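User: Structure please.
Assistant: Input sequence and predicted structure:
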Amino acid sequence: MKELREMMRHWVTGVSIVTAELDGKIHGMTVGSLVSISIDPPRICMTLANQTRTHKMVTQTGLFGVTLLAYDQQSIADRFAGVIPDDGDRMAGLTILRLSQNIPVIAEGLGEMACRVIHRYEMPTSTLFIGEVLEARKEDKSTALVYGNRDYHPLEL
């Protein structure tokens, strides 16, 4: 729907990278649909496009990592949003951390989470995943990367 797309481009959202590992290969994608839905119990939700490699990996493993990006990580956001295609190695040259259950995340963001899928809601072109947060880490950065009106912006925290 054109009107909804136009309206939502003015809604500011945080920028995150969702990562997963399958058969020894780590992959991920930029996600703006990440939402905290509960602190107790710890739950988040996000959507992934059904045709993506990341969707396949999260569906098969039931595990995923999340890196909340800092403002100085715009190039990483672009890399995972398609500058490097879905079949490319988006992880090349990045530092990977391992959290609970050996879940990979990208280092040096605002923070990272390791999650386990507890519910899925499939839609025609994407899937809503609800994840239980197994581990969360806050890094020592204070400027978040946010996206609104088709551009990145800093948000001082």
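Helices lie at 2-8, 53-61, 74-83.
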